[in-house]
Amino acid sequence: MIREGLNYQWRLPAHADSAAVQAIASDLNIALPIAEVLYHRGYKTAAACRDFLFTPAEVISDGALLKDAERAVERIIRAIAAQEKILVAGDYDVDGVTSSALMMRCLRDCGAQINFFLPNRMRDGYGLSVKTVERAAQNNYRLILTVDNGITAFDAAQKARELGVDLIITDHHRPLERGLPDAYAIIDPYQESCAYPFKGFAGVGVSFKLMSLLYKKLGREIPDDVFELLTLGTIADVVPLLDENRYYVREGLRRLGRTESFALRVLKENARLQDKKLSSLDIGFYIAPQINALGRLDDARDGVVFLLGSNKEDTLRVGKVLGHLNEARRDIERKVSEEIITQIESRQVPLTDALVVVGTGWQPGVVGLVASRVASKYGRPAIVLHKTSDGLVKGSCRSIPDFNLFSALSQCASMLISFGGHAMAAGVCLKESDVETFRTQLSQIVRDTIGPRDGRLPIIVDGELPLCDIQRSLVHDLAYLEPFGAGNPPPTFYVPRVVCTDKPQFFKERHVKISIFHEGERRSVIFFDRPELYQFFCDRIHEPIDLVVHIDMGNKYPGTIELRGIDCAAAE
Predict the structure, then answer these.
(1) 528 pLDDT exceeds 80?
(2) Nearest 5°: CA angle at 120, between 119 and 125?
(3) Highest mean pLDDT among 151-155, 365-369, 549-553
């Protein structure tokens, strides 16, 4: 059932099999609304729900199933034995930084002669370059390991081959149609003929699987602190928290409850979370953005050094810088977003079915975040590009549900200099002169695939939730669904025919809080960054309204339950 809200198109679920939901609730001893959420998410028996909620170790597959993984491990073991110099070539985002730190931590522990290189976002751009390979060869490196990149490094792979440097690529991005680079070994679950059953790893997950196989071959236990890096990178890269990812993040969060690195403690203090047991949402909203700021350091290597935390003074120094960088990033992101929205609203930029915006002076480090905001606001894929000095435009793309961005970019490949990414996020580079043609072609692909855009993003509603069912026991049982993230978002509930009892409260000219009532129950609901709703609720005091909400899992006041509003509409 489809219902139109003020900002979203609500996709309400079909009626559940009440007997099946009751059986799930009874067998697992959980609240009926939580059982209904599980049912609507495809877990229709108690056994299926139990496997999802508690994710047994049996979901873990042998890393040897990854194509080329055993060949790569054998080469690494030879390099360690011969004390050959090994270079880890990473990336400057959270996934790339945590992957680099994980690989460094593991290989140092195994006695490898190892160093690492992260490109500078402004000077070097993304991925492994020919120049990096040449410098590695000049400095007598015989083996290069990429992490979170490399699957499109055709020129760099060819140069490595010419110079006698063995290149092992570990990546999680989809290969291009032209094939694979000519590398010694490629570990990427998306490559053809890779038998590994789970494909949804972040780059840090692929690195972890390779290192796990190495440690297994060496008869050793992987270091406990490696799980922290795996957890941070997996959550931050917004890969689906299902299957193996769910298992590893659950395990990582459990271990973080017992012990955490000095670097993580610094990040928690920056976010004022030092006294809190971290959840996946805490990491996603408060910790990951700080790690993302590592890529904006003048020397990106400081990011890996920070996460490895071998020197407390350096860790504290970089941690303070990160706090300032993250604050500055938020201001820059807000200003660029406002600039783009003003251009769209004033029709300086056409509101096409795929939004393509080009600007001068926009920092490459914020365009992905801005693209996410713009895609969400206008309900269509958004591509935010910044001009370079050589007549090119580069930037980030963010998609919406139901539209595979990587597939669409593949159809536009003839006009792109380079691209790479996933269904929901990608990076592109093209000539500035080709932007209009790119916008037209991509918009046509959107229309052909999912129809013209009307500005409303769909939102999946997990179930109906009467106010009388919102009790502490429900919040307790909701925690079983964690960790929340991509593929397993916090449940979204439909709360019908409630009455706004009082004049709404307005906070910081941005947030609106209302008090609602239904059949003897009263709750408060807060809508963040929705100032336009203030008048909507003022006009409907004592009138029935329908809401879509999340239950606030992070409430700081015991005994209280607050609902976080997502959308609203006059009651039908």
Answers:
(1) yes
(2) 75
(3) 151-155
Beta strand 85-89 pairing with 141-147: parallel
Question: Alpha helix locations (H) across 379-471?
Answer: 405-411, 435-450
* Predicted structure pTM score: 0.89
What's the pLDDT at 301?
Answer: 75
**Rounded to whole angstroms, how far apart are CA atoms 384 and 355?**
8
Rounded CA gap, 412 and 177, in Å? 12
Residue 546 or 274, more confident: 546
What CA dihedral angle connects 430, 434, 437 and 438, to 10 degrees?
A: 10
Peptide bond into 483 cis (omega under 30): yes
The pLDDT of residue 555 = 53
Is residue 326 over pLDDT 80?
yes
535 by Cβ neighbours in 10 Å (0-12 / 13-18 / 19+) ranks as exposed
C-alpha 509/C-alpha 531 separation (Å) is 7
Which of these CATH numbers, 1.10.443.10, 3.90.1640.30, 1.10.390.10, 2.160.10.10, describes 63-225? 3.90.1640.30
How far the first Cα of the chain sits from its last, in Å, is 14
CB atoms within 10 A of CB 227: 20
Residue 111: strand, helix, or coil: coil
Q: Does domain 2-9+462-570 have CATH number 2.40.50.140?
A: yes
Range ranked top by mean pLDDT from 201-205, 305-309, 425-429, 558-562:
201-205
**Pick from 36, 467, 337: nearest CA to 345:** 337
Alpha carbons 11 and 92: distance in angstroms, whole number: 37
Residue 359: count of CB within 10 angstroms of its CB:
18
Residue 128 to residue 533: CA distance in whole angstroms = 48
Higher pLDDT, 457 or 287: 287
Indicate if the pLDDT at residue 252 is higher than 90: yes
The mean per-residue pLDDT over the stretch 286-308 comes to: 78
Please identify, in words, the CATH class of the domain defined by 349-457.
alpha beta
pLDDT category of residue 560 using cuts at 50, 70 and 90: low
Question: Could you tell me if 183 and 165 are in contact, meaning their C-beta atoms sit under 8 angstroms apart?
Answer: no
Rounded CA separation 180/161 (Å): 14
The Cα–Cα gap between 3 and 257 comes to: 41
User: Residue 524 belongs to what H/E stretch?
Assistant: strand 521-527
User: Residue 217 has which token pair?
Assistant: 């071959």
8-state DSSP, 177: T
